[in-house]
Amino acid sequence: MTPEKLRALIRTVPDFPKPGIHFRDITTLISNGAGLASTVELLAEKARAADAQSIAGMEARGFIFGAAVAVRLGVGFVPVRKPGKLPVPTIGVDYALEYGSDRLEMDPGAIAPDQKVVIVDDLIATGGTALAAAELLRKAGGHVDHALFVIDLSDLGGATRLRSAGVRVEAILDYEGE
């Protein structure tokens, strides 16, 4: 399935979560078997080209695409979690949000030193979560220089922020505006 056919499967919800925002809802994409399979295959091709030895995904929608890409490549999946979700000692990174802060955590033994980890997520907006994930994976000893997304909201500058941190960014679809 072409990227434009995938675009047709993504629902735009106006004025959510607040007026003026056009929410790109992937629920309609992941509920379509052919669309989901095509999206995973396109991401897997990019991850394979980046020589991924492991795939990392951020909670929660990064788990959907990241785990599927990892299975497709036959490599491990590293869940990057919200605080308090893992039953083992973790390492974490705090990061700023528009209003407040948040934290990502992971099992420090989930990746080997210098393992090439590719980040996979559904969408990049401002890039805060993806930047924190890259920092956390590097803190764990991973080599992170690629991040893959289904959607890039390019006007929000997240891809540019990630590139400034030495991470190559690729997305299947680009949307301008919020």
Q: What are the defining features of this structure?
A:
178 residues, 6 helices, two-stranded antiparallel ribbon, Rossmann fold, alpha/beta
Structure description:
- There is one protein chain.
- By secondary structure, this protein is of the alpha/beta class.
- It has a single domain (50-175), classed as Rossmann fold, CATH 3.40.50.2020.
- It is built from six helices and nine strands; from the N terminus they run αββααβαββββαβαβ.
- The protein has helices spanning 3-8, 27-30, 33-49, 61-73, 128-139, 158-164, and strands spanning 11-14, 22-25, 54-58, 76-80, 91-97, 100-106, 116-124, 143-153, 168-175.
- The strands form three sheets. The protein has a five-stranded parallel sheet with strand order 4-3-7-8-9, with helices on both faces.
- α3 crosses α4 (61-73).
- The radius of gyration is 16 Å and the shape is globular.
- The mean pLDDT is 95.
In short, what is this structure?
With 178 residues, this protein is an alpha/beta fold. Helix content is 33%, strand content 34%.
Topology:
Elements (H helix, E strand, L loop, with lengths): L2 H6 L2 E4 L7 E4 L1 H4 L2 H17 L4 E5 L2 H13 L2 E5 L10 E7 L2 E7 L9 E9 L3 H12 L3 E11 L4 H7 L3 E8 L3
Parallel strand pairs: 3-4, 3-7, 7-8, 8-9
Antiparallel strand pairs: 1-2, 5-6
